[in-house]
Amino acid sequence: MVTRYVFITGATSGIGYGIAQILASKGHHIAYNGLADFEDIIAISDKLKDLGAASVHYFDADMRNGDAVREMITAAEFTMGPIDVLINNAGIQHVAPIEKFPISRWDDLIAVNLTANFHTIASVIDGMRARGFGRIINISSVHGLVASANKSAYVSAKHGVVGLTKTIALECATDGITVNAICPGWVRTPLVEAQIHDRSEVSSRSFEEEASILIQERQPNRTFVTPEQIGSLCLYLMSEAAASVTGMAVPIDGAWTAH
User: Fold this and answer.
1) Is 17 designated active site?
2) How far apart are CA 187 and CA 256, in angstroms?
């Protein structure tokens, strides 16, 4: 197995942290960013080292700010080494009907969930081309393939991630670079748990009852996808076996999109 230099955005919790743990356990160099207190960042970095990461580095940036995102990537490559694998995972959520959707929340959601991916990809692509190898994995969502009410910004951003993925895959098709989007269904992340909590407050049902109802509404296998399963899919997309897998939006959704 070749040891790679990996950068993961939004890796202090949820899907990103699960991916980081899987990749750390295979001995890769891990650089990551995300929202967390200093003590939590130390604990996360120590955990990744204990799992076997060749090195671990944390970088901070406001993902709404394109200049800050590009500066973060530059700092990561200076500190860790040239990025072989970029995993765009950072994301935020807000749920409201469009007539009540705050403009500031729309702007933030598009910036973090979509535009930040543009900046990270643009920052690494020349180096990947020069080395003749690169893996770009964008964590989209099942909502990059289908829609749900009251999620106009999130669905728009995640559809945009799928479109961005396809476009960059075409631009890099002969450069040894693959570009793919992973489209998870329900994963029990802090973002999803916040939605379950909101539903529970409205319905007066318990959190666990509401979680069960949520999973049964859309996900036919009635099982939450785990961050570790997504991390294992990333490992495959990083591998030589996936050298011809590019421009794909890959569902991992318990048959949600099979409807």
Assistant:
1) no
2) 12
